[in-house]
Amino acid sequence: MIDFNNKGFFKLKQNTDYAEKVAELLLEDETIIDSYKSMRDGVVFTNKRIIAVNVQGLTGSKKDFTSLPYKNIVAYSVETSGTFDLDSELEIYFSSIGQVKFEFTGSTSIKLISKHISDHAL
Question: Could you tell me which PANTHER family the record lists for this protein (predicted)?
Fold first, then answer.
């Protein structure tokens, strides 16, 4: 499983690369909402869950896929970007695994992600 406590792990920017990587993991009625990529790792938001992808090893051929269902979200926090701090953050608290934190680049619409999570978790 991904070490979500490592703050430097995710600095995500919108990108469709990981949407293709998780396509075969999706359920029949599951659709991709948006996807994000950091240097090697990524996150995909679907209509049912969040899939975090951790690329492992030197070649990157080994990948860890962590499924985080919206139904297990008990709370979440959004920090928007500011004038000097251009990055935004999303902290999600899951009933089964605890806190998960994602950091996004300034161009990410964190409010749209927040609305999407609310639509599926509340």
Answer: BHLH DOMAIN-CONTAINING PROTEIN, HYPOTHETICAL CYTOSOLIC PROTEIN
Q: Is residue 78 part of a domain?
A: yes
Do 97 and 74 form a contact (C-beta atoms < 8 A)?
Answer: no
CB-CB contact of 63 with 77 (8 Å): no
Contacts of 57 (CB under 8 A, 6+ apart): none
Q: Is residue 3 part of a domain?
A: no
| 86 in a structural domain | yes
Determine the pLDDT at residue 73. Answer: 95
- Residue holding tokens 């990529």? 37
Residue 2 lies in a domain: no
Residue ranges in the chain modelled with pLDDT below 50: 7-9
Residue 108 near residue 14, CB atoms below 8 Å = yes
Q: State pLDDT tens for residues 50-63.
A: 999 988 877 778 88
